[in-house]
Design goal:
Helix content is 42%, strand content 15%. The protein is of the alpha/beta class and 1036 residues long. Helix 3 runs parallel beside helix 24 and helix 26 crosses helix 39.
């Protein structure tokens, strides 16, 4: 098939640029890069800030603004967590996942080419989204992990970054001593300088950026910060407080610190200040230090402690504390002290204040903005200043109480909604300013034009004015020569007559260019040969292929679609040509064809080519590849493969969405069970008549990945003469995965890929036939039960919707979920619905007979028919025992069993095969085709459905539609599908069942006329349409 994403015309992006002048409050199209909440920063303040601000911003922005969330696909688990946390704001159509090569972090070195290529790919991918604003949540990432930023601000949009601080520039020797760290940090700072707007988290950070980056003041805005709503004074809980203190060895009232341990955090000065407190005051308190601390940092602080006179037990190191512990520590401390020398904002003091702690902090950097109270500040460079302020609080209960109340009031003024509002207003003003000053320009291509003449087409005379190279394409050798040119080294103009456009199909797919059509088309019709059928599949999927095989209808050559799809722009000099093409190719969606003015064709053509090469996705990708090829360095084969994969996955999806229909089991082996009959019938109708805008693609899991199951699909459609490769599946956001087949053998291996598809915006729908291994566990082998439950738990974790074949099965699934309470990694519980199955069309003209020995018996006496796999739940043992009772009582009838051998029924098989009535009045057929089954239905007297549990009950409907009386066990699912069209029984014993069968056979024999029941059941066509509607209606 054509590469995904190259069938979208320029301007059809979800971020199509709005050309109207922007006023205050006008919609804005924004791309928010969330790597700050995905990378290792997610464990620090940057991650918390990014997530909290994102949530608040999205609450305010939607539905006015169109916000897309950009995720780095390299961070899979953090991505899942973010999707779950952001909920409806991160629905699939809002998500953009970018694949970056592995191993691009800056720390190890030796990967400069790969890192540079990844940054260039990211810029290309972002530019293709056509946003008004690209907002980078954390512009200094990627040293210790595979986070990546574009190598330059993306063109065509404003670039905005959140700025937390520039503290490393205050002491470059301490923070940027290693050359690799310095290079990495300077690259990030350069990105900050080139952004159109920086959103500073404090006024101190804003002023620092203006001074150190030499930026105009209007390019840096202070949006502030806030604290998460979970940080508030907790309800009193003496037991929880006692347990927390006991766990950490806190035995006295305590002074608290929470934060990092690098030198600027000034924790050593805090220890010294605590040691210099008046002895009675110090002896009544402990110093509790919270935070993840390295062994090296702990040794350094232990050395400081030893130089003081502090007795053992005076200082408690808790290590990392979860929020639940931290909140209670904040609320119960006697004092919270934050002695940092440099801080971009100072979130711990604000958290402590929100929990009602008395807080004192440094009078440096941003901390006065947070505290906003002079008598709660100290000089962090003077130990005595810290100690004095601590003493004032600890030795003055009234002052401490005053600070507690002040803290609560002050913290309440910091709200994420306010921060989000400031950020939104700043970005909207920027976008409006850029829009009002935007002047469209058209450039003239600077590279040489190569004109490729196809067949007898003539190169326009005016091309000589542009020093164009002229190439004639008349042989395969020349074709190969053209395709060997370096990508985008020259601008290509193909010149062809409409009647020989087909010759361009192979070269246009590998080397796109602009297309000039010279003459009116004469005949665009095609003979459906193999190459044409392959082209039909590429152009319109299996439905188009099936249509092309209809030799009674003349079809436009589908290769035209591929040619026009891969043209960077189609032009002509005769205004009649577009009309003629549309008239002959009625089944093809024709692109716009530019008619060049006769008086100025040269200028118009050059301008059209300039526009195409600067905006068309194919041309932009070619430029990307040129840029990567020009990068210095010697990439390895693995590097090149990783970059190629990233380029492919960066392509934007087209207008047609794929439904990836899993046929993993049936494509491997069709054992023609009820489940597989459902798969065949639903799939064949979808293939022939897909929903509008949908491309049906059967897929199978093989060799560690999903592949297009083209061989199976072609066989199902009877197109065995067509062969196509089974490529790896390419997905795009908006595609749909339908677990139509029960792929229990592949789910464990396939789950990681399905989970990855889900986070990329592919919605997941699974067909559930029954929960019988759970509801009737004794009728299945323990291994089968375990496998089934494993399959169910896996699909529950990734499924968006479960379509059950009956309401009874849906009810069972609801009950199981309520009882098990499974986790949903993506945050939302799935939708559970049901859609009835169809039944085969009644052949009507089937006059054949069953196999000879069976036909003779069926004509001689009444026949009781059972249809279904031979397994314990089907009730075969009880049914045979009941029949034996009747035979022993001289009731003359046949028992005919149609079904494959299943499991745990070896004793029954031996019993049947050794039975005195075998091949006399007892028949078991395990190799019946659909035609023979139809004849058996018509020749039988009554259908017996003795199952102890079912998911649906297709044989009951198939029998009833042929007027065959049905005797069925009284199951909810049987009543659901049959209504009053069956005779129901409970019959826990064989004797009771024998009585039921005696009366049922008697009634059926006396009234031998077949009567079609009034109840109407869906055909497979209707069932397929209903199931498609369920999928369409519940795509997230």
């Amino acid at each position: 098939m054509a590469p995904r994403g190259h069938n979208r015309s320029p301007g059809r992006s979800p971020y199509r640029v709005h050309q109207a002048s922007r006023s205050h409050g006008a919609p804005m199209k924004l791309l928010l890069d969330l790597q700050g909440a995905q990378s290792q920063s997610r464990h620090r303040g940057i991650g918390r800030y990014t997530l909290a601000l994102t949530h608040a911003f999205l609450e305010r922005a939607e539905p006015l603004h169109d916000v897309r969330l950009l995720f780095n696909a390299r961070f899979d688990a953090p991505t899942d967590a973010l999707i779950a946390t952001l909920g409806r704001h991160a629905r699939p159509d809002r998500r953009v996942l970018l694949d970056m090569p592995e191993g691009i972090r800056a720390q190890p070195g030796g990967n400069a080419w790969l890192r540079q290529a990844a940054s260039r790919i990211m810029r290309h991918a972002i530019e293709g989204l056509h946003a008004d604003v690209a907002w980078f949540s954390s512009p200094l990432e990627g040293y210790n992990d595979d986070a990546v930023l574009p190598d330059a601000p993306p063109a065509g949009m404003a670039s905005v970054a959140t700025l937390y601080d520039l503290i490393p520039l205050h002491d470059a020797d301490a923070y940027l001593g290693h050359p690799r760290v310095r290079e990495w940090y300077e690259q990030g700072v350069d990105m900050l300088r080139r952004c159109d707007l920086l959103l500073a988290i404090s006024e101190w950070v804003r002023q620092d950026a203006i001074e150190r980056l030499h930026l105009p003041p209007e390019r840096v805005v202070n949006i502030g910060s806030a604290v998460d709503g979970s940080f508030r004074r907790p309800d009193p809980n003496p037991a929880a407080s006692e347990e927390l203190r006991r766990r950490h060895g806190i035995v006295r009232p305590f002074v608290l610190y929470n934060g990092g341990f690098d030198p600027r955090k000034n924790v050593a000065a805090l220890i010294e200040a605590f040691a210099t407190l008046p002895k009675p005051l110090r002896s009544r308190h402990q110093l509790v230090i919270v935070g993840r601390i390295s062994d090296e940092e702990k040794l350094r602080l232990d050395a400081v402690t030893r130089r003081t006179t502090l007795p053992p037990g005076s200082i408690v190191y808790t290590g990392f504390a979860p929020d639940s512990d931290l909140i209670r520590l904040y609320a119960e401390c006697a004092l919270f002290v934050f002695p940092s020398l440099l801080e971009g904002f100072g979130l711990p003091p604000l958290e402590a204040m929100a929990c009602g702690a008395p807080v004192i902090a440094s009078n440096s950097a941003s901390l006065p903005e947070v505290i906003d109270r002079r008598d709660a500040l100290f000089d962090p460079k003077r130990v005595e200043s810290i100690s004095e302020r601590m003493t004032k609080v600890l030795d003055n209960p009234a002052f401490a109480t005053e600070l507690r109340q002040y803290a609560l009031d002050r913290a309440a003024s910091f709200r994420w909604s306010t921060v989000a509002q400031r950020a939104g207003e700043a970005m909207q003003a920027l976008a409006g300013k850029r829009q009002s000053t935007h002047i469209p320009t058209t450039s003239t291509p600077t590279s040489r034009i190569t004109c490729v003449r196809v067949g007898g087409a003539r190169a326009p005379a005016w091309l000589s004015e542009h020093d164009a190279r002229i190439v004639s394409l008349t042989s395969q050798a020349e074709n190969s020569d053209v395709m060997s040119w370096p990508q985008n080294s020259e601008r290509v103009l193909y010149v062809a007559n409409a009647s020989n456009l087909q010759q361009l199909e192979p070269i246009m797919r590998s080397r796109p260019g602009a297309l000039l059509i010279e003459e009116l088309p004469q005949n665009l019709l095609a003979t459906p040969g193999t190459s044409v059928l392959r082209a039909a599949y590429r152009a319109g999927g299996y439905a188009k292929l099936v249509a092309m095989r209809d030799v009674d209808k003349e079809q436009a050559d589908p290769r035209l679609i591929s040619i026009l799809e891969h043209s960077l722009g189609t032009m002509c000099t005769d205004e009649r040509i577009p009309h003629a093409l549309r008239a002959q190719a009625t089944a093809i969606t024709m692109p716009n064809i530019a008619v060049l003015p006769a008086h100025n064709a040269s200028y118009a053509c050059i301008q059209q080519m300039a526009l195409a090469y600067s905006t068309h996705p194919l041309a932009l990708e070619a430029q990307l590849l040129d840029d990567i090829a020009a990068m210095e360095g010697k990439p390895s084969d693995d590097d090149i493969a990783a970059v190629a994969s990233a380029v492919v996955t960066s392509r934007k999806p087209g207008d047609v969405r794929q439904w990836l229909v899993d046929v993993s089991s049936i494509a491997e082996k069709d054992i023609r069970t009820g489940v597989q009959r459902v798969v065949r019938n639903i799939l064949v109708h979808w293939l022939k008549s897909p929903p509008a805008g949908i491309r049906i693609e059967p897929v199978r899991f093989s060799q560690g990945r999903y592949r297009y199951a083209r061989r199976y699909a072609l066989d199902l459609l009877g197109a065995t003469d067509v062969t196509m490769p089974e490529d790896a599946v390419e997905i795009a956001s908006g595609d749909v995965f339908v677990g139509l087949d029960w792929a229990i053998d592949t789910i464990a291996a396939a789950e990681p890929q399905l989970r990855d598809w889900h986070r990329r915006g592919v919605s997941m729908h699974f067909l559930v036939h029954d929960l019988l291994p759970i509801t009737l566990p004794d009728t299945f082998h323990p291994y089968a039960r375990n496998r089934f439950e494993d399959w169910l738990r896996r699909i529950i974790g990734i499924g968006d919707q479960f379509i059950c074949v009956s309401q009874a099965t849906a009810t069972d699934l609801h009950h199981w979920i309520n009882a098990e309470a499974p986790t949903y990694p993506f945050g939302a519980a799935p939708i559970i619905t049901h859609s009835p199955l169809g039944v085969d069309a009644m052949l009507g003209n089937n006059t054949s007979e069953p196999r000879k020995h069976l036909a003779k018996a069926m004509h001689a006496r009444p026949t009781l028919l059972m249809v279904g796999t031979i397994e314990p739940r089907k009730g075969y043992d009880q049914a045979l025992e009941a029949c034996e009772i009747l035979w022993n009582n001289h009731i003359n009838f046949n028992l005919v069993i149609v079904g494959h051998f299943g499991w745990l029924m070896e004793t029954f098989r031996a019993r049947v095969e050794g039975h005195a009535e075998h091949h006399q009045r007892l028949f078991w057929l395990d190799d019946v085709c659909d035609d023979e089954l139809d004849v058996i239905y018509r020749t039988s007297t009554t259908l017996l459905a003795a199952s102890w549990g079912e998911g649906y009950g297709l044989p009951l409907i198939e029998a009833a539609r042929r007027g065959l009386p049905v005797i069925a066990r009284d199951l909810p699912v049987f009543r659901e599908v049959m209504g009053e069209q069956a005779q129901y029984f409970t019959a826990p014993s064989a004797e009771q069942l024998a009585d039921v069968l005696r009366s049922g056979l008697t009634r059926a024999t006396v009234s031998s006329d077949r009567v079609t029941p009034p109840m109407q059941w869906s055909s497979w066509k209707q069932s397929a349409a209903a199931m498609a509607h369920k999928v369409m209606a519940h795509r997230p």
